[in-house]
Specification:
The structure is a single chain. With 357 residues, the chain is mainly beta. It is built from 1 helix and 38 strands.
């Protein structure tokens, strides 16, 4: 009987030890998947290496991640996640197809993910939001990547107070039918091609952004019903704001000053409204090529080296209420019909003495 009791006790001890081993191993695996050790005192889960975040919760980066040779450094696949970079850097080696911070996936939608306070450098895509609803990126920098930030098939994504600089193609790119994207108070600077790039998307708002020293400051391609308000598109090599095959956009109260074109509409862009913009020190202030039924009104256009307003093969446009000062030529209309200019030959686009600030 005593021997039987001893055997039973030993069996129980063995079972308890085995259970503890399983718990420890499972906990370690969960830590790897979720980004590191468990939360400290109920706070965010600390992350000190590249990882996959597959559970909801708050996470924080605890150190710089330098020269990481991996496909993706921080991948977030869970919804309801907050990732705080704590001003740390996520740095790669520039490998093709790599990503610094990737939120979402092709397979399903991810919701309510916030990334903030980090610098992402030397990746193919610095930051990518894919199939994300109500995502946020704030107070971040994405530099020296191929693409600084990409939003693909997003809904209600907000990007604010973020800098995209010296990326080899785009600074900020919004594509694949993304809707209700809000870009506010961002800087897209010294990117090789586009500062802010929107393709095949609509219903988005760009407000208070700076797009400077790019090839094109802000480019809309096949993008409809977007609002561009109070942006600064200056010192770009070709154009400040360029619309190609884009319809029914509101371009209002922007400041544009660039090497060639201030605001440039092309490729059958129609029914866009260009209003109350300050267009200063461009070669051509406002240029339309093969673009119809647009409204150019109440803009202040000054110091254009050639034309203040130039229409080429662009019919049925309306020019009204603009203030023009110290331009090489005022309004030039070539191979364009049914252009409405209230007030006579110069329209109500009146020439004023002195410069316009």
């Amino acid at each position: 009987m005593a021997l039987r009791d001893v055997g039973t006790s030993a069996l129980r001890v063995g079972v308890i030890v085995a259970v503890l081993v399983v718990v420890v191993v499972a906990g370690a695996f969960a830590g790897l998947q979720m980004g590191g050790p468990p939360p400290r005192d109920g706070g965010p889960t600390p992350i000190d290496s590249c990882t996959v975040i597959s559970n909801s919760g708050a996470y924080e980066l605890t150190q710089n991640l330098e020269n990481r040779n991996t496909g993706t450094c921080i991948r977030i696949t869970a919804s309801n996640v907050t990732f705080d970079g704590n001003s740390h850097r996520i740095d790669g080696i520039g490998s093709f197809g790599s990503g610094g911070v990737i939120v979402g996936s092709l397979d399903s939608r991810t919701e309510n993910v916030s990334v903030s306070n980090t610098t992402v450098t030397d990746w193919d895509d610095g930051v990518r939001y894919l199939n994300v609803t109500r995502g946020r990126l704030a107070n971040a920098t994405s530099a020296n990547n191929r693409v600084g930030l990409a939003v693909l098939n997003g809904s209600g994504v907000t990007v604010s107070n973020t800098t995209a600089a010296a990326n080899t193609v785009y600074g900020i790119s919004v594509t694949r039918d993304s809707r209700r994207t809000l870009l506010v108070d961002n800087t897209a600077r010294a990117n090789t091609l586009f500062g802010i790039h929107m393709v095949g998307t609509g219903g988005n708002t760009l407000r208070g952004n700076r797009a400077v020293a790019n090839e094109y400051g802000i480019a809309l391609i096949d993008a409809d019903r977007n609002d561009l308000v109070r942006n600064n598109a200056s010192l770009n090599r070709i154009a400040g704001i360029w619309l190609s095959a884009s319809d029914r956009n509101e371009v209002i109260d922007n400041y544009v000053s660039n090497r060639f074109y201030g605001i440039y509409l092309a490729d059958r862009s129609t029914r866009n409204r260009l209003a109350s913009n300050r267009v200063v020190s461009n070669a051509v202030g406002v240029r339309l090529v093969e673009s119809q039924r647009n409204l150019i009104e109440r803009n202040r256009i000054a110091r254009s080296r050639a034309e203040a307003i130039l229409l080429l093969s662009s019919d049925n446009n309306r020019i009204a209420g603009n203030q023009l000062a110290n331009n090489g030529r005022r309004v030039a209309i070539r191979e364009s019909t049914n252009v409405t200019r209230p007030g006579g030959e110069n329209g109500s686009s009146r020439t004023v003495a002195g410069s316009i600030p």
